[in-house]
Amino acid sequence: MSAALRVEVINTGTELLFGSVLNTHISYFGQKLFSLGLRIQRQVTVPDGDAIREAILEAASRSDIILITGGLGPTTDDITREIVAALTGRPLEYDQSIFTEIQKRFAKRGAIPTSRVSRQAYVPEGATVLQNDFGTAPGLYLPARNEIPHLFLLPGPPRELRPMFEQHALPILARFAGNHELTARVFRTAGIGESAIEDQIGEQLLAIHGLELGYCARMGEVDIRVIGPASVVEQASEIIQKALGPQLVATDEIELEQVVVQQLTDQRKTVAVAESCTGGLLANRITDVPGSSKVFLEGNVTYSNEAKIRTLGVPSDLLDTYGAVSEPVARAMAEGSLRRTGATYAISTTGIAGPDGGTPDKPVGTVFVALAEKGRDTHAEKLLFPLDRLSFKQIVTQHALDLLRRRSLHETEGSE
Amino acid sequence: MSAALRVEVINTGTELLFGSVLNTHISYFGQKLFSLGLRIQRQVTVPDGDAIREAILEAASRSDIILITGGLGPTTDDITREIVAALTGRPLEYDQSIFTEIQKRFAKRGAIPTSRVSRQAYVPEGATVLQNDFGTAPGLYLPARNEIPHLFLLPGPPRELRPMFEQHALPILARFAGNHELTARVFRTAGIGESAIEDQIGEQLLAIHGLELGYCARMGEVDIRVIGPASVVEQASEIIQKALGPQLVATDEIELEQVVVQQLTDQRKTVAVAESCTGGLLANRITDVPGSSKVFLEGNVTYSNEAKIRTLGVPSDLLDTYGAVSEPVARAMAEGSLRRTGATYAISTTGIAGPDGGTPDKPVGTVFVALAEKGRDTHAEKLLFPLDRLSFKQIVTQHALDLLRRRSLHETEGSE
């Protein structure tokens, strides 16, 4: 970790401040830079226009490297390139090879670039062009000059920025990288709250000299982040692993669904899902994981009662007697999915996501989750998550995945 | 719109810079403040610690209102409250009523708050407490004092912050609100690129005096944002609507899936989905919309060939002859879903999401989307989106939803 080198990030774009778009750059840069021993000291978002110039000047006085995103596109609100050229005293020069690349990209779709697009072929003198394999706007690297530190100009859209950053910017940044004196580790937990975690491990961890400690709570999970010299992080890791046991999902920032798919793959087991209130999110999270086709057989989003009957074989008298949001129906859904698919495990969800549909008996947020497995009794739980619709879907799938993780974990350890 | 009042946002949290967490606050604040005629001029993210103090001092010199998120929790890295108390010369006072609320919240889960949690009951002298209905950390409002502008301290987790902001912070902010001289409007498009849009409408819009214009491209959609006096925005709206026609998804920042669910609801039509490569995302996006249960009957995530055969009735010889990723199979999936569910429309997706599974003939990114409707020929398309797995899933569902939107739009207009 280089203590001396300060990295700042400037995100440009009125749309980022205006509410139209989520800024995903920081979390991405943070991870990539740490792997080089660099850390972001500060991040600023400014609207398109003159504020970009001010932000660069402010950051210049404090930092060694500035990453700037956005404002490289073809439209008239894209002016980062021009601002930086003026600020660093580098005239813009037309680069025919860039325009040729743009023409090729348009030709693939049978189109011809308009004159508007040719703006993107102008490069500040002495800048290194960072090729864009997924769009027309090339990135730029300008070495430090005139009191302005090293600048990286990168496109706004993540699917253009990320491949460019990894292939073309990171190799340059690696020259500035620190000496990796510090390591970082993240422990991801599920099924336990932030303050309960600190009650269990906080005092022991705070007693370790030279350890930087942080907690981060999200929907259904808490991350514990430890940073420090390798030996210190090792000491902390032992305390955390011993204290948290099966509540520890991963010793890394990997998603719960990745852990589940990995466990099932290792065990050559399969899963099917029968969703009502989570509406496909459970299947979607599992299939987000590359290689999930080895373990995921089928998902059925049985939103209507008719779908529950015809696809999962839920008896209609159960629906009449207990209602769709009930433990017997959750069990029948999971068991129906198991019969239908022959999977090792089947999970079901049925609940009231809201905002409407709640009753005094079953308020919005009520949910039943069931886990069926061949030759074993079906396990079912009633839970209450009175949240907005999307948070509800997220935390219910989190809970369902953690149920599956713990079940297959116990199989591995032979402790159940 | 108040030209005089400057709002800045400071997000605190090492995890935000470290790559663990996505910052969703800005887009949220941006939307809410604009409704009061206020706009965010700048946003900064700083790590936990002394940088918070520096950032407040810097923002203080430029702004009238500062919104600060994070660092109000129970753990030792939560120090925003203490920093602000020191900076504004307001001693921290213990507020028993806050602790009583915390106790009640713990009691609901059968728990007792630890002494650690009681830190959250301390309030800087003269501050207004903003009640937290979804967590233990209350928010704080500190009126301007000692060269420090109005401060709002808000909790980091969005599900705590948002209800608090709407119920308790916005009414206070409304006192500072501008005079709404400006209006903003966003037009969302699908199926057309950013520079093609500007080619169609750019010149006409730039010719309008006093219009602020911005474009924002995302996966499968582009937003056009116009800001200005009402008459000017009206003039721009007419140009945009006339030029873009059916490529215009919405005259507001609403999601494509909301438009689709609304159209189907108005027309009393229903939809079912049969997904392979999108793995549940299509069902998930539709069921994200409140009220979607009226139009969405069933989704089947038929990941394995067996699932395609047993659930959608895809003939096994089609799978043998053409492979799962083929036009005949996409058609058979959509038609099978239609037969199974009796929905008005059924959409299917089958493709290669990658990173593995591509062939020279069908590279990663190849996808077939089909739309079946009773009494009409099934429509099928072959597309190529050579992207990472998650972007691929996103853009394929975007395409599928837009196909459905255009089909049902034509129904409404009787033009097909």
What would you note in describing this structure?
Two copies of one chain form a homodimer. Chain A is an alpha/beta fold and 416 residues long. Chain A is 40% helix and 23% strand. In chain A, the strands form four sheets. A six-stranded mixed beta sheet of chain A has the order 2-1-3-8-7-6, with helices on both faces. In chain A, strands 14-13-15-16-17 form a five-stranded mixed beta sheet, sandwiched between helices. In chain A, a hairpin with a 5-residue loop joins β16 and β17. The longest helix of chain A is centred in the last third of the chain and has 25 residues. Chain A is globular. The mean pLDDT of chain A is 89. Chains A and B meet through α1, α2, β2, α7 and β10 of A and α1, α2, β2, α7 and β10 of B. β14 of chain A pairs antiparallel with β14 of chain B, so a sheet runs across the interface.
Quick gist of this model?
2 copies of one chain form a homodimer. Chain A is of the alpha/beta class.
As an assembly, this protein is: homodimer
Largest sheet of chain A: 6 strands, mixed
- Most extensive interface: A-B, 103 and 103 residues
- Using the CA coordinates, give the radius of gyration of chain A: 26 Å
Mean pLDDT of chain A: 89
Major sheet of chain A: order of its strands? 2-1-3-8-7-6
- End-to-end CA span of chain A: 44 Å
Overall form of chain A:
globular
* Helix content bin of chain A: 25-40%
Let me know the number of strands of chain A: 17
Output the structural class of chain A: alpha/beta
Strand coverage percent of chain A: 15-25%
Low-confidence stretches of chain A: none
